[in-house]
Task: inverse folding
């Protein structure tokens, strides 16, 4: 049995938006490095190294996010009732905690 709730995923906070933001950060860092060092980055190897490290880190983060999203999706599809039960329990705990404050 496969349960899929398309409308539960926010369009503003989607994984694609996060990936696009990471790519913009890398592109901005690359443009910044080129504007500082000119078109030839050979004179500034530390900037080239830092930009390369930033690109590698963003790519690694992107891959980890995608892997985590796929693992979560598989879990929710495989065990929808456990997921819903956990969500209800978490909601009850948060509600109890908030009502205890008042």
Result:
């Amino acid at each position: 049995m496969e349960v899929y709730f398309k409308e539960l995923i926010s369009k503003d906070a989607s994984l694609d938006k996060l990936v696009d933001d990471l790519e913009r950060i890398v592109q901005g860092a690359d443009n910044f490095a080129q504007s500082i060092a000119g078109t030839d980055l050979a004179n500034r190897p530390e900037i080239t190294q830092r930009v390369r490290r930033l690109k590698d880190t963003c790519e690694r983060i992107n891959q980890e996010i995608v892997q985590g999203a796929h693992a979560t999706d598989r879990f929710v599809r495989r065990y929808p009732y456990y997921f819903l039960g956990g969500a209800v329990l978490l909601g009850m705990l948060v509600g109890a905690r908030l009502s205890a404050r008042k």
Remarks:
- Helices lie at 15-37, 45-78, 80-101.
- The chain has a mean pLDDT of 78.
- Residues 45-78 form the longest helix (34 residues).
- Residues 14-101 form one domain.
